Amino acid sequence: MAVVSPSILGADFCHLAEVIDIVNHSEAELIHLDVMDGVFVPNISFGFPVIKHISKISEKPLDVHLMIMDPDRYIETCKKSGAGWVSVHYEACTHLDRVLSHIKELGMKAGIVLNPHTPVSVLEYSLENADFVLLMSVNPGFGGQKFIPSTYRKIKELRAMADRQELKNLKIEVDGGVNTDNAARLTEAGADILVAGNAVFASDDPAAVISAIRNC
Length: 216
Ligand code: DX5
Ligand code: ZN
Description:
Blueprint: E1 3-6, H1 16-24, E2 31-36, H2 48-57, E3 62-67, H3 75-80, E4 83-89, H4 96-105, E5 109-114, E6 132-136, H5 151-164, E7 171-175, H6 183-189, E8 193-196, H7 198-201, H8 206-214
Parallel strand pairs: 1-8, 2-3, 3-4, 4-5, 5-6, 6-7, 7-8
The structure holds D-xylitol-5-phosphate and zinc ion.
């Protein structure tokens, strides 16, 4: 059983209200919102004015994934826009621990994101300051990419590190190329939360795919 966080990046932006309504009535427990700056990643998605509107109609907590440089500049804006969970990239923060503290001080859950090439070992002295870690299973910036299989090993390494540090509440989220074929193996490896964009929203029945991933 996994928590599912559908990524609206895979949805039709002309019908956002309908998309949020589908998620509201589904077994998803979060809704994943990808903010990109065109610098940290080679794409630009949507920003906080859009998130603020989504927060007014979403019944699920907003899981905001910041793919931006120096995300500390936008933590207060995240809060004002209705975010419940905020994740920042290890690769985009000079003072990661300060950013995590900032997120938590504002009453939000703080997550560290690792790109596929970044080893779990960099988290050794930051893990205790995070509520969750988001492992990218594709190179960030675009939906619909192919899942990178070394993620399974990474999840196990991260779970082992969390166990060694007795961090029982640490959640592991996986993002990129997640679908009904790999969901079971991801949860067996130790993932708690699965982000799915294309698999959900390119389907004729998004709620059914959410349910299938959740009950994998
Ligand atoms: C990619 C984003 C993902 C993306 C996932 O940079 O962080 O959240 O929407 O999309 P799929 O599930 O299509 O790989
Ligand atoms: Zn994401």
